[in-house]
Amino acid sequence: MFPVHRGRRLRKNEVIRKMVRQTNLSTDDFIYPIFATYGKGVKKEISSMPGCYQESVDELLKNAKEVYSLGIPSVILFGIPEHKDEFGSSACDEKGVVQNAIKAIKDAVPGLYVITDVCMCEYTIHGHCGVIERGDVANDPTLELLSREAVSHAKAGADMVAPSDMMDGRVAAIRAALDKEGFSGIPIMSYAAKYASAFYGPFREAAESIPQFGDRRTYQMDPANRREAIKEVALDIEEGADIVMVKPALSYLDIISDVRSSFDIPVAAYNVSGEYSMIKAAGKLGWIDEQRAMMEMLLSIKRAGADLILTYFAKEAAKILNG
Ligand code: PBG
After folding, report:
1. What are phi and psi of 249, to 5 degrees?
2. How many angstroms does the Cα of residue 204 sit away from the middle of ligand 1?
3. Which CATH architecture has domain 23-321?
4. How close is the Cα of 66 to the center of ligand 1, in Å?
5. What is the pLDDT of residues 137-165, one digit of tens each?
């Protein structure tokens, strides 16, 4: 009790603050998202995400080299294909945008760990995460497509696959398909507790995946539900997920914390597009200190319990961490 206890003693200067710091960010925590597109020499900035681009393979290779040289261990690839159809066929094309990007990166920067987002929404004309039947995404037929997509990424050389569709049973289906094709060593990071969030807005511009009708609330989780996240994560672990993800991150720190304390496997958190855009916009207007807000936000995600953070800020944060 005061005056014996004085918390300020351990805050006196940066040396002692560093010595007693309870959470540290590291470049090893980061996974950097890359948007792969078709063509050559394409580097198109995403207007709502300054500093992020849709890039053709030749361009994204330069990006991948920079990511690697900054000490960031991993990237996650999203694809913007040339052709979309009802069934998202281009998602499984062995010469598809993501497949080409994987091969090129593994060739040029073999040490960079390549994760792929496994979903249909970037490849379907309707922009939904699966096959449409009677006005809604049909769960079980979609599992087949997701499994084929995951196998096709593994064949192209992906180190890990990350299903983001929120269909029931997709982890088990993908695990079985990978194992059957000889990829039992490829881990699955499941977007296990993924909420139907307004914070994905800028990403849908980036990935050209805006749903053409309705929304994603019949498959993504209701933002009001906390205990349901534990159920979703438990099911994904049972089905064989190696890493589970909570998404978005900032408005869901309670969920990250719950998942961390309930399970003993690595937890990832997705610091999504809208969270990035808000900081960028306020920074541009001079309303906040962009760099400090970025570091504080990333630290809060780690402090809540995330082992890994998928973030568009990875390169900027790495530059600060590397000094
Ligand atoms: C695809 C997918 C989305 C994101 C990652 N994978 C969008 C969505 O579900 O609508 C969002 C990422 C972000 O906002 O940064 N299903």
Report:
1. -100, -55
2. 7
3. Alpha-Beta Barrel (3.20)
4. 24
5. 999 999 999 999 999 999 999 999 999 99
